């Protein structure tokens, strides 16, 4: 891309994250990018062009995924093979070893991941370059109703949603966490990608009826030092599963990936 040229952006998905991301790009708030259109499952009354993925790939330089792990699974390889770059927010899809291996080989488009709801990933990734992490734990606390999953029994869901006190819903590996809670624990995958080792990251998930804010606490110990990041996000007004800051994280990631101006890396 010539310096100063604007890259054409397609936004995949138009829910809590995608709607804000599309509106901000359309309003000219992302340096180096213009909104070419949105890729939806069903047409909606929106002030932007709506196109199929095939049309988007003819016209866009970058696709921003805001649609969920399944959408990444369905479309990512085709996007990268068509030569468009892809920014992914549903990072947990990388927990699938076979799919992740396919994505690593796909190109010439470049694959980016957004930091999403959590922070400290820059320091963890810097530390991982210095030496290995020996232990990383992420503890997430969310409202019970946001954590019910299709694979849970009715009894499990009822117990989850009726508990008056915090309940541990999951304790185990980051890989399994990102797959069992695909709309709630993408953050576990983001931490695993930052430290460059899925096997060292463990996850605790708590359903807490008093969790007005969504909490993620990341504790890590390794060659570079010991770290503790405590994050308490306001949930999105449009989707209580998602932290409200996530679309803004996507916009920050997008602007960084476009590289039209300098700034904090
Ligand atoms: N990395 C992180 O920190 C976070 C990641 N996420 C990821 O972002 C995803 C989206 O979150 P929200 O916007 O809050 O969800 P949402 O449910 O509000 O919106 C998702 C939208 O994507 C659309 N969609 C799904 N599949 C599609 C497809 N194949 N093509 C076009 N549109 C499609 C849906 O119709 C819906 O409108 C989550 O499922 C999760 O995977 C969410 C929160 C934090
Ligand atoms: O938004 C959040 O706080 C985290 C989330 O849903 C995810 O990682 O999928």
From TrEMBL:
| N-terminal signal peptide | none
Query: Could you cite one Gene Ontology molecular function of this protein?
Result: aspartate dehydrogenase [NAD(P)+] activity
What pathway does the UniProt record associate with this protein? Cofactor biosynthesis; NAD(+) biosynthesis; iminoaspartate from L-aspartate (dehydrogenase route): step 1/1
Where in the numbering of this chain does the Aspartate/homoserine dehydrogenase NAD-binding domain appear? 13-103
Entry keywords, A to Z = NAD, NADP, Oxidoreductase, Pyridine nucleotide biosynthesis
UniProt keyword Phosphoprotein present: no
Main role?
Answer: Specifically catalyzes the NAD or NADP-dependent dehydrogenation of L-aspartate to iminoaspartate.
HAMAP family named among the record's database cross-references: NadX
User: This chain belongs to which protein, by name?
Assistant: L-aspartate dehydrogenase
Instruction: Give the organism, scientific name.
Output: Glutamicibacter soli
């Amino acid at each position: 891309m010539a310096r100063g040229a604007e890259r054409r952006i397609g936004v995949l998905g138009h829910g809590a994250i995608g709607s804000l991301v599309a509106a901000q790009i359309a309003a000219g708030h992302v340096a180096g990018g213009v909104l070419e259109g949105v890729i939806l499952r069903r047409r909606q009354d929106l002030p932007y062009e709506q196109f199929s993925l095939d049309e988007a790939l003819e016209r866009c330089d970058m696709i921003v995924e805001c649609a969920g792990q399944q959408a990444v699974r369905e479309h990512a390889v085709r996007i990268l093979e068509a030569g468009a770059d892809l920014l992914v927010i549903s990072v947990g899809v990388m927990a699938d070893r076979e799919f992740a291996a396919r994505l690593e080989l796909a190109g010439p488009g470049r694959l980016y991941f957004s930091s999403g709801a959590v922070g400290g990933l820059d320091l963890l990734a810097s530390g991982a370059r210095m030496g290995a992490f020996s232990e990383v734990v992420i503890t997430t606390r969310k409202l019970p109703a946001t954590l019910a999953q299709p694979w849970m029994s009715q009894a499990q869901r009822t117990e989850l949603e009726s508990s008056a006190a915090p309940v541990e819903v999951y304790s185990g590996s980051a890989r399994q966490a990102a797959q069992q809670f695909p709309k709630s624990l993408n953050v576990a995958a983001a931490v695993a990608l930052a430290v460059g080792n899925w096997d060292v990251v463990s996850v605790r998930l708590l359903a807490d009826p008093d969790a007005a804010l969504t909490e993620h606490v990341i504790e890590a110990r390794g060659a570079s030092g010991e770290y503790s990041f405590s994050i308490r996000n306001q949930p999105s007004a449009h989707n209580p599963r998602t932290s409200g800051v996530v679309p803004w994280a996507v916009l920050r990631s997008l602007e960084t990936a476009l590289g039209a101006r300098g700034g904090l890396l």
